[in-house]
Amino acid sequence: MKYADEFRDPALAKKVLARIDETLARMPMPEGRPLHVMEVCGGHTHSIFRYGLQKLVPDSIEFVHGPGCPVCVLPMGRVDDCVTLAEHPGVIFTTFGDAMRVPGSRGSLLDAKARGADVRMVYSPLDALELARGNPDREVVFFALGFETTMPSTALTLLQAADEGIGNFSMLCQHITIIPTLKALLSDPHCLIDGFIGPGHVSMVIGNAGYRFIPERHGKPFVVAGFEPLDLLQSLWMVLAQLAGGRAAVENQYARVVPEDGNPAALRAIAEVYEDRESCDWRGLGAIDRSGVRIRAAYADLDAERRFGLVPADVADPEICQCGEVVRGRLKPFQCRAFGRECTPATPLGALMVSSEGACAAYHQYGATDGATDRGASDRSATDRGAPARG
Amino acid sequence: MCLGIPGRITEIIDADRFLAWVEVSGVRRKVNVTCVAEPGRLDDLVGAWVLLHVGFAMSVIDEAEAARTLEVLDALGEVQDELAAMRESARP
Ligand code: SF4
């Protein structure tokens, strides 16, 4: 078996897989479809593909890849906002590398750079701040992107800038939050998700209490998981054990990193700098109430939106894209009509094809080469599963 | 950007700004330790393994956890990407 050479402890993996089999045998299964377990986080999606976990687990379980990759849900209009700021005279526009290739209606940030804009990839918002210190005659804008995992770092950077009175630094805030997104997914009457593998690093910041509505109101298990393949298998088993026992709860498989109450210093910084936006746009999912944050008025000078009088662009996804269906778990990437044709990693239409954590890029990368992916990425056609009906 | 990479705190640079040197797979990087520090006891962090997210230490982990996490990141092809991003950061 393949896992023998991939797992640090193959014997343990075998044991967990045996437990999964045993639990499956004594639990109620959904009628006419596999059990759907959604891994919310893009990092988990990446791990699942890399280790071929879908192939290791029984056919009656299907991983549904969730919306938890901030680059993948970046709407085209927001990319246009970035390009607008990047092309503003005197601006150095800084961003995490992943966001550079996401297409907007006027191309990506990389295209803007090729046209002459000063766009720079940074590893950390601290590096953007350093650029501002070193270039007092330029305006340095940082694109603050991500879920709660990166929010503390941008908040602390902004506080540092405020503290030092750095006058030429600002942030374009595109932070999004996981709980409203899960609420939106679960309130969809077509939602056929039976249980969740929860995000490890978001939870490290926010803690676990916020997820309780999922078991309490929707009756679905939610297990916060680590990123090792064994973590994911164990978490899957914990989801199944809850279903088999007829219970639903928030459980923490990743307690070695995720404290129940999150990280207090990080939460303080977030609360100091950010407040909810009434609504935030998601690629493929549309607008979701209170699913994003903006910079508080007290830090207006450091808010690029206010500083540059930015009017946010509103751009519809290209007609052919089915990113929304994929993000909701209703379509597998290869069932999108653009997959591998109009949309490839070299010519991405949607952000899911850009980031290594995007489901479409993962299918393209692993599906095409060794089949160690979701079973069937190669052996199922786009039509034989009555795709939209699955939602 | 979403996966944390383990590193080891080697020195506190600036206690007021919560800045420390962290070594990540042989690369030295300035890191903010606000989220893992107890005020006034920054020196206790020297030698500790931490999970780094975009230049911020977000969690103290033990050495075995650090080694396992590096192994997974290596398999995912993320270690080289992160180190490259650290090295190339902010270049025009
Ligand atoms: S293949 Fe391209 S267009 Fe289709 S869902 Fe994936 S990223 Fe979107």
UniProtKB/TrEMBL annotation, chain A:
<dbReference type="InterPro" id="IPR042244">
    <property type="entry name" value="HypD_2_sf"/>
</dbReference>
<feature type="compositionally biased region" description="Basic and acidic residues">
    <location>
        <begin position="372"/>
        <end position="383"/>
    </location>
</feature>
<dbReference type="InterPro" id="IPR042243">
    <property type="entry name" value="HypD_1"/>
</dbReference>
<keyword id="KW-0479">Metal-binding</keyword>
<keyword id="KW-0408">Iron</keyword>
<dbReference type="GO" id="GO:0005506">
    <property type="term" value="F:iron ion binding"/>
</dbReference>
<feature type="region of interest" description="Disordered">
    <location>
        <begin position="371"/>
        <end position="391"/>
    </location>
</feature>
<dbReference type="InterPro" id="IPR002780">
    <property type="entry name" value="Hyd_form_HypD"/>
</dbReference>
<protein>
    <recommendedName>
        <fullName>Hydrogenase maturation factor</fullName>
    </recommendedName>
</protein>
<dbReference type="GO" id="GO:0051604">
    <property type="term" value="P:protein maturation"/>
</dbReference>
<dbReference type="GO" id="GO:0070025">
    <property type="term" value="F:carbon monoxide binding"/>
</dbReference>
<dbReference type="GO" id="GO:0051539">
    <property type="term" value="F:4 iron, 4 sulfur cluster binding"/>
</dbReference>
<dbReference type="Pfam" id="PF01924">
    <property type="entry name" value="HypD"/>
</dbReference>
<comment type="similarity">
    <text>Belongs to the HypD family.</text>
</comment>
TrEMBL record, chain B:
<dbReference type="GO" id="GO:0005506">
    <property type="term" value="F:iron ion binding"/>
</dbReference>
<dbReference type="InterPro" id="IPR019812">
    <property type="entry name" value="Hydgase_assmbl_chp_CS"/>
</dbReference>
<dbReference type="Pfam" id="PF01455">
    <property type="entry name" value="HupF_HypC"/>
</dbReference>
<comment type="similarity">
    <text>Belongs to the HupF/HypC family.</text>
</comment>
<dbReference type="GO" id="GO:0051604">
    <property type="term" value="P:protein maturation"/>
</dbReference>
<dbReference type="GO" id="GO:1902670">
    <property type="term" value="F:carbon dioxide binding"/>
</dbReference>
<protein>
    <recommendedName>
        <fullName>Hydrogenase maturation factor HypC</fullName>
    </recommendedName>
</protein>
<comment type="function">
    <text>Involved in the maturation of [NiFe] hydrogenases. Involved in the biosynthesis of the Fe(CN)(2)CO cofactor.</text>
</comment>
<dbReference type="InterPro" id="IPR001109">
    <property type="entry name" value="Hydrogenase_HupF/HypC"/>
</dbReference>
